[in-house]
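Hi everyone, sorry if this is the wrong subforum. Our group has a chain we'd like a structural model of before ordering constructs, and none of us has done structure prediction before. Sequence below.
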Amino acid sequence: MQLSTRYNHKDIEDKWYFFWEGGNYFLPEIKEGVTPFVIVIPPLNVTGSLHLGHALDITLQDILIRYNRMKGKPTLWVPGLDHAGIAAQNVVEEELSKEGIHRTQIGHEAFLERMQEFRERYSRIITSQIKRLGASCDWSRERFTMDEICSRAVIKFFVRMYEKGYIYRGKYLINWCPRCSTAISDIEVEKEETNGILYHILYSLEDGGEVSVATSRPETMLGDTALAVHPEDGRYKSLKGKYAILPLIGRILPIVADEDVDPNFGTGVVKVTPAHDFLDYDISQRHNLDLISVVGVDGLITENGGKEYSGLKVLEAREKVISNLKSEGRILEEKPYLYSPGRCSRCDTLIEPLLSEQWFLKVNEIKKAAIEKVRDGEIIFIPEKWTKVYLDWMENLKDWCISRQLWWGHRIPAWICEPCGELLVQQTEPINCPKCCSGELKKVEDVLDTWFSSALWPFSVFHWPSDTEDLKYFYPTTVLVTGYDIITFWVSRMIMSGLELTNKPPFKYVYIHGLVRDEKGRKMSKSLGNVLDPLALADEYGTDALRFTLSSLNTLGGQDITLRKPYLIHSRNFMNKLWNASRFVISVTKENNGEDLFQSSSNLDIFDQFILTRLSRVVKEANKKLEAFDFSNYIKVLEDFFWKDYCDWYIEIAKLKKETADTSSILRYVLKTILVMLHPVIPFITEHIFHNLYPEEKVPLIKQKWVKEIPISESESSINKVSYIFDAVTALRNIKSLFKIKPDKKISVILHPTDAFEYETLIEGSPVINALAGVQELKITCELDTLPKHTATQVVRGTSIFVNLKGLVDLNEEKNRLSEMLLKLREDLNKIQKDLANQMFIEKANPQTVEDYKLKAMDLEKQVNKIEEIINYLGEDDLETQSNNCKDRW
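Answer:
Right subforum, don't worry. Here is the predicted structure as tokens:
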């Protein structure tokens, strides 16, 4: 096989995925007595295409899966999709609306058929996108939250919780989305600070006088059933136990004292509307107040709000209420007010707290074990900081509203006997009512919250409650990889349900990564128009480059990722570097396709010993990083070694040496090791290169053994020597660059070492120094009576390096150029130093500005000193050296 002269990701990526999938390389090899490595994919919503957050999540999971598979563990990655309740139904309703149809017009069954067609269509799209990203999932075990297997688990869970008394039905205040026409949970309500108005409204007192009440939602006053003050607010002690009259309506309102009232809000007197505010609802329960609903499920004012307002939209009612209050002279003041109204996370509609009959899951008992297992370290959050977020949420967790008023989802397994009202909850459909024997049973129309079914995901995918071999072997899973935004939505609920139903934590590790943001650090959204399609980026830069970028930016601290195109360009450049270096290695090792020839480092030169020792240390460090889920530093360790040590140095040295079996074998051995360790991150290019490097190898790279350690004796002396030689070459290259000497121009150099190690190493490395730095004449001397002129100099460790500039640089022109630069630098430095010496500036300036000035001054001083040094060595004398007798001296 032959690598083409140019790397083109489009030529290889599809080919290798078909190869892996067709060869069943994603299937786990079950080994009795061996603990498997298992991940269940966070099921993707069947509502459209993947975004960059999905691409990051999939990449990190695939890295862990490929790594553990190569380590020889039975490795399973279960893929799957979520039915996405509200989100999916909204999409299909929008499709219908474009046809001028509402779901009620086609009916329940026809609508579900449309939902199924939509689900099948997008399931195929999303699955193909996951594969496009290189995900090595076991597709034979793919699941869907509403398939027969997962649905059976959901029904079992519901009935079991109901029979234990943990699930109950009742009329309580919930978050209601008028657009989606359903209840939603607290964590599906998004709050964003908004400019509003705080109205001060006069309420008359029954026994005479008035009191001012502040509110940002005057339309809800139509449902007021009390006023409230703080019990220790001295301004209103005389009001306690009295009554007020509700403006516009005339209802008599008791005035109660409650500690939940904030005396600093508005006037300190608040209206209590229990059917439309959660705080007011709590107050009403303590004071036995009436609950009057004045906003309906359609978002319109009900008849309870009064004939004049009935049928109006909420904001229309607000305008009318304000107008009527003003006409009666009851609005004292209108103040600008910042507040945070709740919006539906699915459709951005303003949420209405409403009284509604819903199903709830009690959490007080089942959350105890979920808290304990995390505190005891049986479940570990990485990074550790997310442990506190989880525990804070769990300790304050309230009962969970699990019912939704949708058509798409798991129907609640409950029936109501129409003649007698008996409620039946069971796994199979009942025939007759056990209480009155009637067969007139109506199934409850509500469906379950999507998160209720996905809470069972880690074990429902293995056919729980059936005691299958998969469940026995692959559960509990090993690690969950997900973003921090669903710790409360999903992670907490999986832990609770897993412990409740299986008595086992659903996973050992929870690896939390950040979100992917745009170049300005903004969350990507369609409304901002800043969404980047991961597949479009994969088409442009290559899937490997995209994976490399996302994972290298993913730090262990779990910070959000700011994606910029230069990062993608750098990653693509790395792929090109890997490709071209591999082409060279294959070209010089094409006759050496047998076993690697070198057996130890004892007879190798210092450069061979250096690269093998560095490789040995890199393997140890990289393994440690990956075991700690430190993806970014794992990649950095490998990239730095490959690009700098292997390509920039060892390959260049290999080109200088006469081709030997050892050098050829080492070139290939190091490359193979790098391919193995990079494969989890960039699987396509590494697999392709591997097959070209080892064309007779029958085991593909995806199944090669992981590199745990390099079987050599590390050589510290080779590291010290070669690093010193490379530093000398780098110093010479820097001088040539500084003075704009062309790289192919030969130079004359004096090296002045200060000890035996430096001297002997320079002698040993002089051929490499000459070749890589373009040295025509090299003198190594231990004696210098005077410093040579007409030279540029640098110091490496203890060695002074002098490069003769005569004939290479116009000395006068260079001195003039440097003198002008020095003048400008001194002016800049003097200006900053004056500011720093000005006490008034120090006192008034921002502390960070002062610190920036100090750092800038230090930088300018370094530049000034450097240029003064360079000018000093551009003298008149010729380059001369004393006789060399270093060997005898040391």
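For your construct planning: The chain has a mean pLDDT of 90. The chain is about 45% helix and 15% strand.
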